[in-house]
Every structure is written in C-alpha cells, then in structure tokens.
Amino acid sequence: MPIVVRILNRGFFQFKRFSSSIPSVGKKFETAEELDAFFSKSTWSTKTLLKKEEIPVEITGETLDKILDLSGLSKSISQDEKSAIMKSLSEQLDFITKLHNVALPEEKPNLTRLVDDKSVEPLTFDSLMESILNTEPILSKGEIEGSWNPLSLATQHQNKYFLVKEGLLKKNK
Q1: What are the domain boundaries of the chain?
Q2: pTM over 0.70
Q3: Per its UniProt entry, which superkingdom is the organism in (predicted)?
Q4: Who has the most CB within 10 Å: 76, 98, 101, 136?
Q5: Rounded-to-integer distance, Cα 93 and Cα 82, Å
C-alpha cells in the first residue's frame, strides 16, 4: 500500500499530510445487494448516547387514551401495542427533558438568523402592472416578442378586448 507524504511549509510551521490510494475504511461493495444488506442492518442507536433519567417520565394508560382521543386514533389496540406506545412516548419525553436541561451560553448578537429579515415591499396592483409592462422576452428560452396575439383567434374583438355577446344573452332568457 503506497503512502504519499506531502510536507507543507507555512511560515515557521511544517505540516505533514499522509494519504493512501487504497481505501482503509472497509472492503469495497461489489454488488447492489451487498450495499442494501449493509444499510439494512442498524449499527448504532441514539439510545446508546443518552443516559437514562433518574426519574423517568411515566405515561399511564389513561394518558395514552386521552392522547389517542385527541389525535382521532382508535383506542381499540392490543395491550402489547399500548405498552410499546407508552414506552416510546416515555423515551421521547425523556429526550425532550434532556433538551430542556441543556445549559445554553448567553445570547450572542452576531449569530445568524434562519429567516431573512430584509423587508420586501408588498405586492400591489400598480407594482404588478408596472412589472408586466416592463417584462421583456427571454431569448434564451425561445421567447419571441409579439409572436402570439390572442385576439387573432377571436371572431369579434374591439381594440384589446374580446367581444362576448351570445353567452350572456342565453343565460338571461
């Protein structure tokens, strides 16, 4: 297995980087079935990362029935399913309790926000009409200026408007 050593000089410091052309993580997958088999097995769980609470949150059967009522789900499930759901809910509440107990540093004003706080002007009829009037065809998309005139298909029209005579008269009779 050839190893390449690259020495980098950065001012007063010297760094060595090692690299290998052969993967050292594991064997290469030969078929899609091997890859599927690898991903079908769970190799770790978040449960191993969390310690159990000293006082776990207990979910009673009555609480589960109320939750099922509020969610509109059927309460006609087996006792095994109920106990599995209560255990899962208890673990989820333990996790949420751990999140609430995490000590956070003081707020820093230089943190970025997820929401862009640049104000955008509200869309008005006038701004919409102005943008329509200023729209130009995009030649790269194959748009050609003045290539389609919807009034050319109408049998009767006046200036830029369609004339409709028959439809309204038939409904009123």
Answers
A1: 48-100
A2: no
A3: Eukaryota
A4: 98
A5: 16
- Do the beta carbons of residue 50 and residue 43 sit within 8 Å? no
User: Cα separation of 132 and 126, whole Å?
Assistant: 10
pLDDT digits (tens, 9 = 90+) for 65-122: 999 999 998 889 999 999 999 998 988 888 888 888 777 777 766 666 666 666 777 8
pLDDT at residue number 166 = 67
Q: Using DSSP bridges, classify how beta strands 161-162 and 157-158 pair: parallel, antiparallel or unpaired.
A: antiparallel
DSSP 48-103: GGSPPPSSPPP--HHHHHHHHHHHT--S---HHHHHHHHHHHHHHHHHHHHHHHPP
* 130 sits in which H/E element: helix 125-133
Which residue would you say has higher pLDDT here, 149 or 47? Answer: 149
Asked if 16 contacts 6 with a C-beta cutoff of 8 angstroms, the reply is: yes
